[in-house]
Amino acid sequence: MNVVTKRSHWLLVLFVVVASAPAQDLRYIEYDTDLLPGTIFKARREAVMHEIGNDAIAVFYASPERLRNGDVEYAYRQDDNLYYLTGFPEPNAILVLIPGGVVGPKSADAASPILREILFVQKRDLQREQWTGRRYGPEGAMVLRGLDYALPNEQFGPKLSEILASVKPKRGFVPAF
Fold first, then answer.
1. Residues 34-54: pLDDT tens digits?
2. What gap in Å lies between CA 35 and CA 137, rounded to an integer?
3. CA pair distance 11, 6, nearest whole angstrom
4. What is the CATH number of domain 31-173?
5. Edge-to-edge strand order for the sheet containing 114-121?
6. What is the value of pTM for the model shown?
7. Exposure of 161 by Cβ count < 10 A (0-12 exposed, 13-18 middle, 19+ buried)?
8. Which is nearest to 119 in space by CA: 133, 106, 135, 107?
9. Do residues 121 and 90 make contact, with C-beta atoms less than 8 angstroms apart?
10. Which one of 61, 136, 147, 168 has the fewest CB atoms closer than 10 angstroms to its CB?
């Protein structure tokens, strides 16, 4: 093997490894193998939406992270309501349930979907994840937790305004902490 062939071989191997990394990324976010499947949480969300009716909206917030002292945090414990409905263990998440539905973004190959649940989560940040641990991100939340739609939590304010303007709910539910 000459030097050029050997170099191109290693470049090909490097390309395959780098190109396949994002596809394998979601497998290693959840370490536990005995988690409840997303279908159970989906059924719970459907039951809550049935109870509040089509003319309402419900918003569930994750528990905040708490500092113990200076730079040490307490072990995180998710809000009971949010965890019961999603099984989502990360802080700074917000679940919005819209029983009447709202028109979602158009995709290139299909019509706009009707969204009844949106989870707002933290974006993936690979540099920060080295220190804080892996995050689901919007894609991981949809795939691993069985949610219809997820967005970065920076979009919560504008998206909630858009939802309220289009749905015009008569009732709103926001559980107390």
1. 678 778 999 999 999 999 999
2. 18
3. 9
4. 3.40.350.10
5. 150-152, 114-121, 94-103, 56-61, 171-173
6. 0.77
7. exposed
8. 135
9. yes
10. 168
Lookup: tokens for 44: 């719970």
Structure tokens at 57: 């909206």
In this predicted structure, the answer to whether residue 109 has a pLDDT above a threshold of 80 is no
Would you list the DSSP string of 7-75? HHHHHHHHHHHHHHHHHHHGGGT---S-PPPHHHHHHHHHHHHHHH-TTEEEEEEPPPP-EEETTEEPP
The confidence band for 3, taking pLDDT boundaries of 50, 70 and 90, is: low
Say whether 141 sits in a helix, a strand or coil.
helix
What b/e string do you get for 83-109 counting C-beta neighbours within 10 Å, with b at 16 or more? bebbbbbbbebbbbbbbbebeeeeeee
State residue 20's pLDDT score: 40
Domain ranges across the chain = 1-27, 31-173
- What is the C-alpha separation between 144 and 1, in angstroms, rounded? 45
Query: Would you state the pLDDT for residue 139?
Result: 83
Burial zone of 118 (CB within 10 Å; 0-12 exposed, 13-18 middle, 19+ buried): buried
Question: CA 24, CA 19: separation in Å to the nearest integer?
Answer: 10
